């Protein structure tokens, strides 16, 4: 019964699942879709569980199944879990094979990760090459490291992986010591086992692994090392040698490098033997020369001499001394056995008797055009070349003598590929073919190259000359002989030509192919003059292309005025195209530019016609010019052959000019012409009517142009009448009309008319040169002798000379213009000096003229007092904008009264009393009063610097030295005074006194005023009069300069000193009187009784009557003080 219920439950579950699946499979296009999932409860015994037979299952809705599955897969993982991988153990074991250690590496990698985690573990190796890699265990893969050498292990999920590798590590040799050194991934524990085919002992070197040596088999050794967690495997060992009683027997090893060079019929070898010692030393070294080999020479750093081979072929090499260190011996060998290109060659071995070990490499290098491969090998293995060897070289390695190597060789056929550009040039008379081929050669070299050219063409040139020795044509075949064998790629050019008949209107285009080429492709181009038009009729095996993409390659091939018309690409020589050639009609357009330059008596016409010839070339142009120009028409242009004038025909007053060229032109061409038309002269200010002539070009399809008018500087030009012309701004005119003042443009040349009114005005003269700055340094001694250094900054546009009028008694010692010495000239009519000038380099450029002059200022030496007058050289033909002067005067004089037209700017002090009084008497009261009262104006004063740099510039110095000019040095010392003037030269007058007499005179005046003022002050008690005298002298001294100013200053000094003494005496007298008054007051106070002892007079006893007081002492008379002066008080 229970079984029946179980089956019923299963059937019910199947039915419900089917219904649920039909509900979920409703059409997608239905508007309403409802998916329901319900649980299915299957009755079973909770203790025993559901009893399902073989092949039975419990059916649940699919949506519930997916939910249960996703819930099981998306179980949250612990937040602290972090996947990781480590290299737990590494072991390396192998043996030494020659100069290479072959090791089997086994790396155990432990990975702790979830099933979906992907980890990357780097396994770096340095100094070792991996031969093969095998991974055992959980899924993983390896890939090379991008930034170094080694592998990168990529593993997914946890588990243990074992990486097995085959490594090849080269051994390092240092004398008798051999070293194994390479880098490995760091592991928790690692070890190394190395089998050596000799008995060895370990060498102690730095960074070597701790290791032990065992000898399991006689003549062999096994080295075992524990590396721990080190990332470097390093062992060092040497052969174990038995000591001898006297001297150790020489035991040495030889590493041979045999380099064999094979040609088509020759063979030679170069053998390099590197000897390293395990024990002992050598005085002589010997090797066996194989049969069939000829010894050419022996060389080496320790080689002293060598003997010829004995009958057994042994060669003894004598060394320069007993050698116990490594050395090399090289031998050059030539094989004299007859060889043919197809004969097999046995490479012999070169034995070294006495060597305990012989190993090395054999490199076979064939010449170009020869290929080699091994036919028979024994004891050698083929390896990859590690150094620079020739193409096709083969390298073999041997580890012990007794090897055999048989080589076969065969010549290589030349393989030629060509990429050509074939350009057909079609003209009226010829058809030319220009070919440029880029030829690539592989295999062996070639000595000649053959071309198949189209029918009827003859070869004219083949190049370049440094590559081509000659050529020979036979029918359509052209054979080009090259200079020597060509193995590299090269470029070859051909020039072919044939005549073109007048009725030849069709042309067949064919490639110029390279005979026997493995690949022959290129471009086929047809180029014609613009006068010819090409049209394609038919083509075969050609691909049309845009000729613009080939222009860079076509430029050196095409002639001038030939333009590409059609272009094709071909990939097989059997290609062609047929085209038709037609002539086009000539079409000429032009643009005319006419410039009428009007002067008071002449109209100059300067015109040009810019032609543009299209389609077909021409050599003739015609112009219509006014007949008043006559035959004096000046034509300019390229290749002009003749100019022929003829009457204008139907139009009166014009002439037809025909200009013929030496050759036909196509494209742009400029024809220029000029002529002059006289004008009737008029009086100044009266207008004159003139007509600008019309110029036309004949036989043109379209003409337009410009008309421009330029005038003289004294002419006024106005437009009286214009027809067919449009006024334009002169900025819109062509560049050759830039000087015009009026501009017009026309589009109908036959309708143009321009009439002008001219008015002439008189010209005024303008400045042609000027002196920007004139500076003079004058040095004067006490003998009235002066030396002047004058510098003129001249801006000259048209003057020939600098004309100077010198003061009387002044003479020129030297003159320089731009540093170049010149010789002044004297003009007879007025005695002026002429200094020849140069023109300024530009309108704003100025240059310096330097003069050194001497002058005597009066007669005799400078006395006790006197005066000096300085006059400047005056330019007569140009103005002076600014003049400055610096005087150096003797130091034992005092100078005053500076007069003349130049202003003193340095060396004196300006009076301060005038501006101070103006401010006191005007500004301050006006500011206090306010209202309409105005203060004095105090604008800022602009001062030009009077300093001037008189030092010679580098250019002036170079010019003076180059022209051998004499430099006159001037010693500038004394008291300096600077003067300046704007516009003009000016003069200076100075008064002087000798310094000692002037000081004595000033002292006398000061002493006199001191005594007078002091006496005057004692006569009056208070020194008010002395104060007034001092104040008056102060004002006079401040407002007076020159000699009088110095005397007033001395008087002021004496009066001031007297005033100071008077004030001191007055203050002392007042102090004495004050002391006397104080003494009197103290005496009176002492005679008066105290207040508490005073009694009225009635109560005073007779005996107590005080004695009568002493008579009063009369005080000294005091003169009453006069009223104070309000002016002095202020």
Note the beta-strand portion.
over 45%
Shape: extended
Distance between the termini: 151 Å
Largest sheet: 9 strands, mixed
- Looking at the structure, the CATH topology of the largest domain is Immunoglobulin-like
Percent of residues in helices = 10-25%
Number of separate structural domains = 6
Mean model confidence by pLDDT: 82
Classified by CATH, the class of the largest domain is: Mainly Beta
- What's the count of strands? 68
Backbone CA Rg: 62 Å
- The unreliable regions are 1-39, 242-248, 1098-1105, 1113-1130
Q: Any guess at the CATH architecture of the largest domain?
A: Sandwich
Task: Draw up the topology in text.
Layout: H1 2-24, H2 62-73, E1 84-97, E2 100-112, E3 118-124, E4 129-137, E5 140-144, E6 150-156, E7 159-170, E8 172-174, E9 177-183, E10 189-196, E11 200-202, E12 211-214, E13 221-226, E14 232-239, E15 251-262, E16 267-279, E17 282-288, E18 293-299, E19 303-306, E20 314-323, E21 327-335, E22 345-347, E23 357-366, E24 370-378, E25 380-383, E26 394-398, E27 404-411, E28 415-426, E29 430-442, E30 446-452, E31 458-463, E32 468-474, E33 477-486, E34 490-499, E35 506-509, E36 513-514, E37 519-528, E38 532-540, E39 542-544, H3 551-554, E40 563-570, E41 576-583, E42 587-598, E43 602-626, E44 634-636, E45 640-647, E46 654-678, E47 687-691, E48 696-698, E49 702-711, E50 715-723, E51 726-728, E52 742-746, E53 753-760, E54 769-780, E55 785-796, E56 801-805, E57 810-817, E58 820-821, E59 825-826, E60 833-836, E61 847-856, E62 865-871, E63 874-875, E64 882-889, E65 893-900, E66 903-906, H4 913-929, H5 954-962, E67 975-982, E68 987-994, H6 995-1019, H7 1024-1039, H8 1042-1087, H9 1126-1129
Parallel strand pairs: 1-10, 15-23, 28-37, 42-49, 54-64
Antiparallel strand pairs: 1-2, 2-7, 3-6, 4-7, 5-6, 8-9, 9-14, 10-13, 11-14, 12-13, 15-16, 16-21, 17-20, 18-21, 19-20, 22-27, 23-26, 24-27, 25-26, 28-29, 29-34, 30-33, 30-36, 31-34, 32-33, 35-41, 37-40, 38-41, 39-40, 42-43, 43-46, 43-48, 44-46, 45-46, 47-53, 49-52, 50-53, 51-52, 54-55, 55-61, ...
Helix pairs in contact: 6-7, 6-8, 7-8
